Amino acid sequence: QVQLQESGPGLVKPSQTLSLTCTVSGGSISSGDYYWSWIRQPPGKGLEWIGYIYYSGSTYYNPSLKSRVTISVDTSKNQFSLKLSSVTAADTAVYYCARVFLGRPGWFDPWGQGTLVTVSS
Amino acid sequence: QSALTQPRSVSGSPGQSVTISCTGTSSDVGGYNYVSWYQQHPGKAPKLMIYDVSKRPSGVPDRFSGSKSGNTASLTISGLQAEDEADYYCCSYAGSHVVFGGGTKLTVL
How far is CA A92 from the centre of its chain? Predict the structure, then answer.
C-alpha cells in the first residue's frame, strides 16, 4: 500500500524560498501509471492545487503560482519536491502531497498527512 | 483561474439525503468528465469519495453518489450518518490544470 510523507521546515521567512519533500513508500515513483502532486490548504480555507510531476520530469503547474513554483523528482530516492519562491504570509498553509492516476486528472489518492508551513519573520 | 462554486454549508438529519452542488464553467466541469469529490474531517487529510463524476473507489459506501449536468456537478449523500459530518470539496480537470471548489461544510443535525 503506497504511503506518502511530507517533510521540511515548518517556518519560513518572508521573501525566502519554501522547500518541501514528499517521500513515497510502498511503491515506485517511477511507475508510469501516476503523476505526483502538491496541494495546499491555508488555515480555515479551501484546497488549492499547486502542480504535479511525472517521473520523467514533465510538470504541470497552477497558472496563478507558476512563476514561483518548481516541482522536481528524484527517482533514486523515491521522492519529489516542491520549491515556492518569494513567499509571503499568504503562503502559510498545510501542504499535502498526493498521487494522481495517469489519465484521471483530479483523482488524488492517497494523500500524505500534510505539513504546516508558516511564513513569518 | 477561479475556484469552483460550492455552497458554504448544508445540513440534514440522520437518515435524510443531502446534495452538494459544484458549479464551474464549460472550461472545467462542463468540459470534462473528470470531476472528483473529497471528504475532509478536521485535522485530517482529504479522502477521495467520488472520481470521474460518478465512480466510487473501493471502500466508499454506496450512500455516496455523484452526477453532472452541464457546468454543475453534484454529490448526494443518502441515509445521512453522524460520521458524514465533514467538509466536502469538489475538484475538476480544467485542461492541463486542476481546480478545486471552495468547500462545503456538512452538518448532521
Answer: 14
Do A8 and A115 touch, CB atoms closer than 8 A? yes
Q: Quick check: bond before B14 cis, omega within 30?
A: no
Mean pLDDT rounded to a whole number for chain A: 95
A107 has pLDDT over 60 = yes
Measure A14 CA to nearest chain B CA, in Å. Answer: 25
Cα–Cα distance measured from residue B19 to residue B40, given in angstroms and rounded to the nearest whole number: 16
Query: Which of B98, B100, B104, B105 would best serve as a mutation to test chain A binding (most A beta carbons within 10 A)?
Result: B98
Measured from the Cβ of residue B73, the count of other Cβ atoms closer than 10 Å reads: 30
Residue B66 near residue B11 (C-beta atoms within 8 A): no
The answer, yes or no, to whether residue B41 has pLDDT greater than 90, is: yes
How many whole angstroms separate alpha carbon A93 and alpha carbon A71? 17
User: How many residues make up chain B in this entry?
Assistant: 109
Determine the Cα–Cα distance for residues A104 and A61; give it in Å rounded to an integer: 16
Q: How far is CA A7 from the centre of its chain?
A: 10
Mean pLDDT of chain B: 95
What pLDDT score does B1 carry? 55
Chain B hits for A104, CB-CB cut-off 8 Å, are 34, 51-52
Percent of residues in chain A assigned helix, strand, coil, to nearest 5: 0, 50, 45
The helix (H) or strand (E) run that includes residue B92 is strand B86-93
